[in-house]
Design a protein that fits this description.
By secondary structure, this protein is mostly helical. It contains 6 helices and 2 strands; from the N terminus they run E-E-H-H-H-H-H-H. The chain has one domain (about 30-125): Mediator of RNA polymerase II, submodule Med31 (Soh1) (Arc Repressor Mutant, subunit A, Orthogonal Bundle), CATH 1.10.10.1340. The chain has helices spanning about 30-40, 45-55, 60-70, 85-95, 100-105, 105-125; strands at about 25, 30.
């Protein structure tokens, strides 16, 4: 899926999450729900976060507002649709912090997050 430019991100104060899969309008053959699900799940990848930072997305106030809006994925009924809810929601939460949005440019930070993900995968889910 092609990434929109930061200028393409338009948010309004009253923006609401999309309906759970339904007969909503399609954009390029996909519903808004499907597009936002794919994007939010991509945030689980430290390398993708580094890529977005290198393109200066995290410096765009509209994109930062979009990341805040996406926090609806951390609440039912949306969480059940996430393939990797742990890293997805953790990184979405970290992206709310300006410091993290700057630090993710560092290869060391990317390596640290990657290592944490590998360890968490080896340990399995916590009870």
């Amino acid at each position: 899926m092609a990434t929109a430019s930061p200028q393409d991100i338009a948010m309004t104060e009253d923006q609401t999450p999309p309906p759970i899969p339904s007969e909503e309008p399609k954009y390029g053959g996909f519903t808004r729900f499907e597009i936002e699900l794919e994007f939010v799940q991509s945030l689980a990848s430290p390398q993708y976060l580094n890529h977005l930072a290198s393109l200066k997305y995290f410096e765009n106030p509209a994109f930062v507002a979009y990341l805040a809006y996406l926090q609806y994925w951390s609440h039912p009924p949306y969480t059940k649709y996430l393939t990797y809810p742990g890293p997805t929601l953790k990184n979405l939460e970290l992206l709310q912090q300006e410091r993290f949005r700057t630090e993710i440019l560092s290869p060391d930070k990317v390596a640290e997050l990657t290592e944490e993900g590998i360890k968490a995968g080896m340990e399995g889910p916590r009870s």
